[in-house]
Amino acid sequence: MLAPGAVIGIIGGGQLGRMSAMAAARLGYAVHVFTPEAFSPAAQVAAFSTVADYADQDALRRFASAVDVVTFEFENVPAESLALLESLRPVRPGAAVLAISQDRLLEKQFLNDAGVATAPWRAVHDEAGLAAAVAELGLPAVLKTTRLGYDGKGQQMLGEPGTGAFAALNPKPLVLEGFVDFATEISVMVARGADGAVVAYDAVENRHKHHILDLTLAPAPLPLELLEEAGAIARHIAEKLELVGLLGVEMFVTATGELLVNEIAPRPHNSGHWTLDACPCSQFEMHIRAVAGLPLPPATRHSDAVMKNLVGPEDMALWPNILATPGLIPHHYGKAEARAGRKMGHFTRLFPKGALPGEFGIENALTLS
Ligand code: AMP
Fold first, then answer.
1. What stretch of H or E contains 360?
2. How far does residue 263's CA lie from ligand 1's centre (Å)?
3. Closest Cα to atom 16, ligand 1: which residue?
4. Which of 76, 101, 155, 156 to mutate to test the pocket of ligand 1 (most atoms within 8 A of CB)?
5. Is the CB of 177 under 6 A from ligand 1?
6. Please, which residues have CB within 8 angstroms of residue 72's CB and are 6 or more apart in sequence?
7. 290 pLDDT more than 90
8. Cβ of 271 below 6 Å from ligand 1
9. b/e 294-321 (16+ beta carbons within 10 angstroms → b)
């Protein structure tokens, strides 16, 4: 158990690191952020920061010597950098968990081996492999890079054969997934402590705009047994991974009520931001608790919530209106430049527990002054 005053190293300088650092400060820890970006969202609220490339071995060595434990808010750290950090300090979650989440092929193989259902998939190494995979899975299908994809980048819908999609997507290899005609997308944030205790927040519904998360409804308006099944799947994955830390598990709910896991992310997750305002212990505090070896409290919520992402200049133009609208809880990430598609902040509106409104009520609740 890390004592107050200890230093938690966070790799990555974005909003997930920022909100983790704020949670760490409340528990009496100092945070040291490692990121290539100067004056990053996380560094703005951290006690210490290193601005260096993720592959800079000297900077990583100095960073490790200055912290008590290392964690991540960004997964795509080079494997050699991870290995170096792990040789010097405890890294939570560990390199093995990160390796799985960095690679869609390893991820799907791991999930299926653990008995977790996913969309049907095939590894695609060349054009002939794509043709064979299409013959097996049928069309439509989704062709994705196995590494470095996010927010819908690095993937292409395949409606017909021979579209040049194989050549267009990099890096190789790719993975072809059968198209899931899903009813909704949900996610569960799950944490596992150093003592093996596992807690999971309620499953939430996620709605996307242009492939970027737009709204999260907490809890997901679905039958209780489906929410419980989603929680059980997330716990099972955390246990199988022997995770120490926090994990976001994204799932599709099919029209027949089947749950298929799409993706796992061993870090705080955009679809868990609602927990900052609707839970006694947010996903960020849970993350820091797991990393620091503290006991994990139950992942209960005291309120229902709708979280709305603020993306790009259009949404940030509404910031004054958001501040002027009673009942909205604003979160700004401190990014200077509102580029298109960039996550700049979010806001949450709370409802009494069990009183999440329907579509009309949600639309009303998001209307700005
Ligand atoms: P991902 O990068 O895997 O998180 O995918 C981004 C988004 O693309 C998902 O949130 C879905 O809306 C959609 N998507 C991804 N994979 C599939 C699939 N196999 N079938 C249908 N939609 C998908």
1. helix 359-365
2. 9
3. 142
4. 155
5. yes
6. 10, 11, 12, 93, 98, 266, 267
7. yes
8. no
9. bebeebebebbbbbbbbbbeebbeebee
* Nearest residue to 309 (alpha-carbon basis) of 281, 334, 346: 346
Grouping H, G, I as helix, E, B as strand and the rest as coil, residue 52 is coil
Distance 4 CA to ligand 1 centre (A): 41
Question: Ligand 1: distance of its center to the CA of 178 in Å?
Answer: 10
Question: Over the stretch 248-286, which tens digit does the pLDDT of each residue have?
Answer: 999 999 999 999 999 999 999 999 999 999 999 999 999
Position in ligand 1 atom list of the atom nearest CA 153: 2
Distance CA 289, CA 10 (A): 14
Q: How far, in Å, is the centroid of ligand 1 from the Cα of 289?
A: 31
Please state the separation of Cα 104 from the chain's center in Å.
15
Alpha carbon 62 to chain centroid distance? 28
pLDDT tens track for 124-172: 999 999 999 999 999 999 999 998 776 667 889 998 776 788 888 999 9
The Cα 26–Cα 43 span in angstroms is 16
